[in-house]
Amino acid sequence: MESRFDLLDNALGAKIAKRIYNVALAIVDSSLPESTQNLVMLRASQINGCGFCVDYHTKDATASGETAVRLNLTAAWRESTVFTDAERAALALTEEGTRIADASPGVSDATWAAVREHYDDDQIAALVSLIAMINANNRLNVIVRNPGGAYQPGQFADMAG
């Protein structure tokens, strides 16, 4: 499989990608736990069928110490015992926030209450922004058919700035 278009080889695409990356850095620097960030990005990417992002976030999570068991069970988190209540709330918010176009009523009050129970305002701002940004990234990569498999952890570190 070959990418249809390399956004980073295009001046405007690279400029946009750099800005998106810098938004991601603000989220990375937040108090939202890194493990939660990784799980959220992986789950949204699974739902959206983004091979590049599943590859990216699985490898980054592994490099930061996430276990294979938790990564493998992310797609079936509701039927798993390896996630905390806070992570479950974040994963539920991720699914409901990602599936808005699937005739979903959006984010349920029960999910929002669980998120409010486990996260402070700064963490919620980071979590909501993370879900929006990973969905945008998934769409960019799926549209241009950017394949998974070749990502190396830290590959985009020079985009900051």
Automatic annotation (TrEMBL):
PANTHER family: 4-CARBOXYMUCONOLACTONE DECARBOXYLASE FAMILY PROTEIN (AFU_ORTHOLOGUE AFUA_6G11590), BLL7811 PROTEIN. This is Carboxymuconolactone decarboxylase family protein. Residues 17-96 form the Carboxymuconolactone decarboxylase-like domain. InterPro entries: AhpD-like, AhpD_core, CMD-like.
